[in-house]
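Key idea: predict the complex, not the pieces.
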Amino acid sequence: MAVDNTEKRLKALGIRETLALLWKQRYLQLMVLPGIIWMIIFNYIPMGGIVIAFKNFKITKTISEAPWVGFEHFIEFFSDSAFSNILTNTLGISLLKLCIGFPLPIIFALLLNEIRSVKFKKAVQTISYLPHFISWVVLGGILITWLEKSGMVNDLLIGLGIIKERISFLGEARFFWVLALISDSWKELGWSAIIYLAAISGVDQQMYEAATVDGANKIHKIWYITLPSIAGTISILLVLAVSGMLNSNFDQIFILKNVLNVSRSEVIDTYVYQMGMSAGRFSYATAVGLFKSVIAMILLLIANKTTSKLQGRSLY
Amino acid sequence: MPQLSAKVKYTNSNIIKRRPGEHIFDILNVIIMLFVCIASIYPIWYVLVNSLNDATDAMTGGIYLWPRVFSLANYQKVLETSGIGQSFKISVLRTLIGTVFSVFFTAMVAYGLSKEYLVGRKLYMAMGTITLFFSGGLIPGFLLLKNLNLLDSFWVFIFPSMFSFYNLLIFNSFFREIPKALEESARIDGAQDMTVFFKIVLPLSKPVLATIALFNGVYHWNDYFAGVMYINDTSLEPIQTYMYRIIAESTSNMLSNNISSAITQTTTSTSIKLATMVITTVPIICVYPFLQKYFVKGMMIGAVKE
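Result:
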């Protein structure tokens, strides 16, 4: 109500009245202004900097001095032999995370909710957050140590008789996707479950009681009551996950990537870094980054449309 | 089955009779949960135990549960290494300054934008919303910081992460819950917006301030990429970047050298690496159990917003 009134009043105001209103709320405006300036500098100027994707920019000269080259960098990227490989890796790792890494916290939350002892439940929850707070550098360091030929994983697998010869897991490209999936799921399992646990705790208890009277067992109750009740939460998070598919977990991949596994570990984000920062090809790297942003935008729109059709609600 | 013991608390329902299948389910479930707990704790335990073991002895491997030859020598060596103290200091400084700047700056802007009568609010909100979905990307961002002369400067850790529109939305939803009467009574007493914000709104917003501060603090403490990307001067390196450099160097050593020639060198430095990891992680581990309820709350405010 109040909002409508203010807006109507604002629309009816002339320049003189607007200025008077601005003067009246000058302190409020002064509080907002630094934020707007910050956004212009740190968000919008770099967005303008995207033009170098269509230019041949050299670090020694200014952006306006650089000659226009149109879509040359994009064409080069699409025809590069690395293109299909990078796209495969990005999508492959993301799809693995989406198909396996996404449902895991849901399952974990459902199972944790079935724990009868409140104390044990709390303890498990707190402990399962721990990996989320450990940086990828430390975690990556641990993984590298474990996965070495002389490391613990090899000791374990040989001890169990699963493998006969020691394997350098991070030194062989074929293991990279699975390692990326496992380490990511492990780090975020407990943390991602928070939202689902909260959604589950909001489910009406009477439904469970009614179901019990009707003779439903645990699996029935999870399947027919809990899951449908949290479907909204799941679908929102799914939209976010799908739209973020081209955003590989840079921190993770960057630390686990090495010369030997690069054929399966180079994703769009690391490629942008490689081309821009290591090779100094700023324009080309920006073009690759822009390609990613555009596709991510389209994915977001599609994912949101789909869930809003299915669920009758949308993200925005 | 006379299972109606009053001591047992049922979380879901007052089940009078439990089926035999559910016993198995419960037992399996507890085992799964214990497994999750062990998996969450063990890596840190492994690092701790190995860092407390004599380095040469640790080379033979097999230290999983307890130090075999207890020794603090690794820590001594780490602390003697020049650079690590400086990196630790940079991390502490950037975490403190970065968090304070970012929390109060974002909160101030959020307060202004939480007022519906603010002229230009729609435009400002639209500007912010765009930043949630689209950014210039890595290279234009780098060029900007270069032009701003922020490369190889401590402030590169502070300014670019000082404001977050996402956090602003979290603040906004909290500020809107504050009873209007409180602010208005202060205004009647002649207080200006700034005074109302600092004297009334901020003290009432401690939970959300704590939440955002913690998110920011963890980000600043754990971030290594800004140091890799924008810093060449090792005296400005945060501890995570320092750690990253050690790991990246020893990995490339390991890959390029023959295993036999590298073995003494790399395994000794493995123990030192692990000790450094412990030093890097201890602050977070000490703090997180006490603060996790704020994180959970913050996740929830964020989720409602989405």
